[in-house]
Design brief:
heterodimer; A: alpha/beta; Rossmann fold; 5-stranded parallel β-sheet; 4-stranded parallel β-sheet; B: alpha+beta; SH3 type barrels; 5-stranded antiparallel β-sheet; 1 helix; elongated; binds iron/sulfur cluster
Amino acid sequence: MKYVDEYRDGKLAKEIAQQIRKEANPSREYHLMEFCGGHTHAIFRYGIPDLLPDNVKMIHGPGCPVCVLPINRLDAAIELAVTHGVILCSYGDMLRVPGSRRRSLLKAKADGADVRMVYSCADALKIAQDNPDREVVFFAIGFETTTPPTALVIRQAKKLAVKNFSVFCNHVLTPAAISNILESPEVRELGVLPLDGFIGPAHVSTVIGAQPYYYFAEEYQKPVVIAGFEPLDVLQAIRMLIRQLNEGRAEVENEFSRAVTYQGNNKAKQMVADTFELRRAFEWRGLGLVPYSALRIKSEYAEWDAEKRFTIDYKSARENKACECGAILRGVKSPKDCSLFGDPCTPENPLGSCMVSSEGACAAYYSYGRYQERSIKNDADTIATDASQ
Amino acid sequence: MCLAIPVRVEEIVSDEKALANIGGVRKEIDVTLIEDLEVGDYVILHVGYALNKIDPEEAEKTLQLFAELDEVSKQQALDAICV
Ligand code: SF4
């Protein structure tokens, strides 16, 4: 596939990795956070940790949309399907996330609720048109990539006067989450989460552009390199970050210039601004209440807003106590710190949201087993060094 | 979920719809968010919607950065041997 295969060349990957080893200063550590779950996935899928020197550490950020949705919003969606009897449509991953008492949309479906997996929000609108005597709700989640399509579908519903369609909006914003991490006590005061720089999201940035990141680079003096999702993109971004850190720079650089401009997609941004407004605060799994971090539907489109159409009761919900997703999403713990990892928590039987989507850190660790290989490799290295001494 | 792929636009149907080649199959995609779209353009497709165009020149430049690096490291390897 064009624009994919060229960025997966194994030989070049090794060479960039070689360069990284050469440029990384052995007397310091580099703690780099990839914000986005797409990068987490690529990092494990292509074994990038194995290619990096030990003093370059990747920290996985909260940019996995199904991972950060708080349990009470998921419970509310289940309630819409079960109590209100609507046809509830959502993207595939969302159906498997465990809510409170380990109930998921998939289980609700097995118990008779009408839950449907859609590939696109346009499919949900189509279902509404095909079932005029039923209420159809699109359970909208995601960052700035899925928000413009949701905006378009709400506008389309208004234009076509589809009265039985509404959207349960849970769209969240990347820059707010990055601020939250940088402001967190773990980073600011306690210093338990050392953070030297960020790999900026790929597809989110195609929409919002490089511009929002300048604030972080300046205010917090952290370099940001926006990177594509292919392995060479990620390696190159790591190398660019190391260079910036070596030279004492904290700038925004754009490795993904083939799809990201300074401004982003103005048309998409305008559609979003015309359809949604900021929520004062929104709860994130792991991060807690984050101010101005999510969107709700503007009153102009209230008729298509599921939160206005139905009485939704947000009960406080308890998470599985042993699940470490919260700390993993903040970057302070790693999946292997969780006692449930791999047994009994697996992608087939997820106990927490980070094990569901392939972008979740736990699922990525589990599916590609890099950490196991890495420790084996380290063991092998140690043995080799021991032997040579 | 954030999976998005580059696809080639094969035919423009309207301001909102186009046909794209997705893994050898022609499919209808929504292109409402894209301005000045032309047949032959590559777009990043996400949940059925094109999010942005891919700039072929920038793509080439990025590849060259990798390739240049290739040259540099080759040169360094050569230097190392010669020393
Ligand atoms: S392994 Fe499962 S239970 Fe543990 S943190 Fe990950 S998702 Fe939660």
